Amino acid sequence: MAETENNSVQSQAELNSLLKIRREKLSELQESGRDPFEITKYERTHHSREVKDNFVSLEGKSVSVAGRLMSKRVMGKASFCNVQDLKGTIQSYVARDSIGEDEYKQFKKMDIGDIVGIEGRVFKTKTGEISIHAEKLTLLTKSLQILPEKFHGITNTDLRYRQRYVDLIMNPEVKDTFVKRSKIISSIRKYLDEQGFMEVETPMLVSNAGGAAARPFETHFNALDEDLKLRISLELYLKRLIVGGLEKVYEIGRVFRNEGIDTRHNPEFTLMELYQAYTDYNGMMDLTENLYRRVAEEVLGTTKITYNGVEMDLGRPFERITMVDAVRKYSGVDFDAIDSDDDAKAAALERHIEFEEHHKKGDILNLFFEEFAEEHMIQPTFVMDHPVEISPLTKKKPDKPGYVERFEFFMNGWEMANAYSELNDPIDQRERFRAQEELLAQGDEEANRTDEDFLNALEIGMPPTGGIGFGIDRMCMLLTDSSAIRDVLLFPTMKPLAD
Predict the structure, then answer these.
(1) Does residue 110 sit in helix, strand or coil?
(2) Residue 346 belongs to a domain
(3) Second label for 207, Cα 20 to 30 Å away, from 38, 126, 321, 474?
(4) In this structure, are residues 102 and 30 in contact, taking their beta carbons and an 8 Å threshold?
């Protein structure tokens, strides 16, 4: 134990010494009038990849690049270094005779992690590597910390999430994931704009957090001495805009749910909801299928994606199955043959499904689906016609009053989207809210509260409408083959380091 502690102390002492040397180098630069932090801009002509991709036209021509010094090999009067920018890395040949003796001495004092600008001519080395023959080298930022050892990178998962800036520097695949995430969201916007949708913004601070079954975060607004909540959904405000005549609206934004953290859940996440007047949940299925297919083609160049070794094909028509049929298929229990809540509870007891006393037949059907069917929804699948008990904002099926025109879109056994033929009957909606209030009184913290202004909007009149909510983070997970939601969130929620 003593030896281990001594090694740790020695390692920390060495680290402190190296950090001290970096600060001393900065002081020397500042005293000699070379303070890199006084530089305000740098004229860059190309990124690294652009130089490589356009070598034929750029060979022998002068370019300037800028980025982080990731490696340096000093060999007497000539050296090589690698600079990393947004697009990749490029090698530079740095010779004393080309940049001058004094500048070459300054180059040799530079540290891995420093940010530099390099101006020079494009050439190819004897080994065939496209490089820049430096004619001028500028230190733009002095790095006062030490990057992780380059061959192992930053592998501590907790540290990667806390110090995402280091993760992005050391792991190119992480940077690629977030570039793809940006392209996914851009592709979604492009597709919806082409379909005539209007992007809008709605409040994050609300007095009544509705539109989903979730426990909200609460805060206090000092100016009005009023308790407010962070939104859990985008739904109720977007529907107000449909009432107002906007007809096709969507919003991509953060929502907040006071729930646990796991590989697919983060308390704040990105949700996209859209609403379209004069269509129903069938229209939302068509839109979802076309949207997912388009995004995969634009971002990945294929409609076949592989997640954790499993291939899913977005190019084929998506399967459509009712929740009752899915439960019958995978559990053998036919809920069409179950007539009462008591019979449903008896079936649950027989199959060892836990339920609560207030649960009704529809609640138990949903529990059966989650237990027996959900994990089988690997290929793109619409699970349709949910029970009314779990769908307080959805229009009932005319031919089957105990069920509603709702679907959940599944891939990889995950819920990826949730859609309705929206309820536009204010009288029915008030009754649904009343049932939610009863659940709230029984201790269900995820139940909705009555929203009088929303009911007033419905009384003004909302046309038949289809609506859907997409989990953007899970979509990004699938399209980037990322194992956890934290891998597609730049700054996921973390426990304080003290814990």
Answers:
(1) coil
(2) no
(3) 474
(4) no
Residues in the chain: 499
**What is the Cα–Cα distance from 20 to 41, expressed in whole angstroms?**
27
Q: In sequence order, which residues have a C-beta less than 8 Å from that of residue 375 and are 6 or more positions away?
A: 413
Q: Are both 91 and 221 inside the same structural domain?
A: no
CATH number of the structural domain spanning residue 138: 2.40.50.140
Determine phi and psi for 425, rounding to 5 degrees: -90, 110
Could you tell me if 80 and 134 lie in one domain? yes
Sign of CA dihedral 114, 120, 121, 126: negative
Side chain identity at residue 287, one-letter code: L
> What pLDDT digit, counting tens, does each position of 205-230 carry?
999 998 888 899 999 999 999 999 99
* Residue position matching structure tokens 């939104």: 231
Q: Which amino acid is at 447?
A: A
Up-side HSE of residue 102: CA atoms within 13 Å toward CB?
4
Nearest to 330 by CA among 283, 289, 362, 377: 377
Q: Same domain for 134 and 190?
A: no
SS3 258: coil
Q: Give tens-digit pLDDT for 293-346.
A: 999 999 999 999 999 999 999 999 999 999 999 999 999 999 999 999 999 999
User: Which domain, by its residues, includes 409?
Assistant: 170-318+379-488
